[in-house]
Amino acid sequence: MNITLELVAPLVDSVFMAHTAAGVVPLTLTEAKELPRRGLPEQFRTPLSMIFAGPAELVLSDGNYTLDHEQLGRLELYLWPISAPLPARPSEIGKQCYQVSLS
Fold it and tell me: Residue 35 carries which DSSP code?
């Protein structure tokens, strides 16, 4: 599946279920935005960033995770932990945040 901003933007604030070694963990998509192309040739997709927020008491290590979403189905994404973006959105306060970048 080719993940695009048009596909994921309507899903901001929805929950993705991440399959982890600690069990299934809910991650809320808090942001989806395109990144600057910075001279990237037209044949390549525009880079996309997605931010997820999950439980603060469990920090997932960076790596590939299977995420399930009721509208998108099953996705394989590389997540890494980040600090909450500033200013933090209400859905990110007190949460552990993760980023996904697709190019």
Answer: P
pLDDT tens per residue across span 18-52: 999 999 999 999 999 998 888 888 888 888 999 99
What pLDDT is attached to residue 13? 96
Element (H, E) at 80: strand 73-82
Rounded Cα distance between 45 and 37, Å, is 9
**Residues 81 and 60 sit within 8 Å (Cβ to Cβ):** yes
3-state secondary structure of 15: strand
| Cβ atoms of 74 and 67 closer than 8 Å | yes
**CA nearest neighbour of 27 among 46, 8, 3:** 8
Report the share of the chain in percent with pLDDT over 90.
72
The amino acid that residue 32 corresponds to is: A
Position 89 scores a pLDDT of 82
* Dihedral sign (CA 68, 72, 76, 82): negative
What's the pTM?
Answer: 0.90
